[in-house]
């Protein structure tokens, strides 16, 4: 997503936990960065201050993959998933509101998961947390209209470091691919392209929506 936006000449400010990766990306894209953990409220305030007085677009792309049966899912698991995915998003938007309101028009993009709209075993904790993200997106879209648009993307399994344990072998990836009508798992650019669109003026009449970017998994059976 950052690479797509930088190629348009947009001014970016990136934040993340991994300082080394963040620094390398910032250098590659010639943009400032702020190392921070979204579980730290003070760090959020610092990042927003470093981002500048006016913010035209905000993407909250933090996430987690907690896959356990309910009997093995602890309160701490569920509280951490909720804080990282839902409460973290709310904190970031709240902190950034003054800067967001200074821009003539603004777009916010949050991230859910296909598991909210379609039940999957062992997804109780992350499903609850991401369900809250979808509710947050709709509530904020209503509250912040008309100057600030808020939308949400709900991907299916996408090839990222966070999910690679689920497709660690060719056989596992092939099985997961067959569960999607388009017969493959997602690539980061599949999600980045939708994010880029929702941030742009091309989506200026779209708000309060949850978009499935999931190879059809939320609505279609995979090929037989």
Brief characterization of the structure:
With about 220 residues, the chain is an alpha/beta fold. Helix content is about 45%, strand content about 10%.
Describe this structure in words.
By secondary structure, this protein is an alpha/beta fold. The chain has a single domain (56-213), classed as 3-Layer(aba) Sandwich (Rossmann fold), CATH 3.40.50.720. The protein contains 8 helices and 6 strands, in the order αβαβαβαβααβααβ. The strands form 2 sheets. Strands 3-4-5-6 form a 4-stranded parallel β-sheet, with helices on both faces. Strands 1-2 form a two-stranded parallel sheet. The longest helix is centred in the middle third of the chain and has 28 residues, at 75-102. The two termini are 33 Å apart. The model has no long low-confidence stretch (mean pLDDT 95).
Question: Secondary-structure map with pairings?
Answer:
Layout: H1 2-6, E1 14-16, H2 19-29, E2 33-35, H3 41-51, E3 57-59, H4 75-102, E4 106-111, H5 114-117, H6 124-144, E5 148-155, H7 170-178, H8 188-199, E6 210-213
Parallel strand pairs: 1-2, 3-4, 4-5, 5-6
Helix pairs in contact: 3-4, 4-6
Contiguous low-pLDDT stretches (5 residues minimum) are none
Radius of gyration based on Cα positions: 17 Å
% residues in beta strands? 5-15%
Task: Supply the CATH superfamily name.
Answer: NAD(P)-binding Rossmann-like Domain
Specify the biggest β-sheet: 4 strands, parallel
**Structural class of the secondary structure composition?**
alpha/beta
Integer tally of domains: 1
Number of E-type strands: 6
Number of helices, where a helix is a run of at least 4 consecutive DSSP H or I residues: 8
Give the overall shape.
globular
CATH architecture: 3-Layer(aba) Sandwich
State the distance separating the first and last CA atoms: 33 Å
**Briefly, what CATH class?**
Alpha Beta
pLDDT average, as an integer? 95
């Amino acid at each position: 997503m950052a690479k797509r936006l930088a190629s348009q000449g947009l001014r970016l400010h990136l934040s993340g936990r991994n300082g080394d990766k963040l620094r390398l990306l910032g250098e590659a894209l010639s943009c400032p960065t702020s190392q921070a953990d979204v579980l730290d409220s003070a760090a959020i305030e610092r990042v927003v201050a470093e981002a500048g007085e006016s913010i035209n677009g905000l993407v909250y792309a933090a996430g987690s993959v907690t896959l356990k049966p309910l009997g093995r899912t602890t309160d701490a698991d569920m509280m951490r998933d909720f804080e990282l995915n839902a409460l973290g998003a709310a904190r970031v938007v709240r902190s950034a509101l003054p800067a967001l309101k200074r821009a003539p028009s603004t777009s916010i993009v949050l991230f859910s998961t296909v598991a909210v709209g379609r039940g999957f075993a062992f997804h109780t904790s992350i499903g609850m947390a991401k369900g809250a993200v979808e509710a947050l997106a709709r509530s904020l879209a209503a509250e912040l209209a008309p100057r600030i648009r808020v939308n949400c993307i709900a991907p299916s399994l996408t090839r990222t470091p966070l999910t690679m344990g689920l497709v660690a072998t060719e056989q596992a990836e092939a099985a997961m691919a067959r569960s999607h009508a388009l017969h493959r798992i997602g690539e980061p650019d599949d999600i980045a392209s939708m994010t880029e669109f929702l941030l742009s003026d091309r989506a200026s009449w779209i708000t309060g929506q949850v978009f499935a970017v999931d190879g059809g998994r939320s609505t279609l059976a995979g090929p037989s």
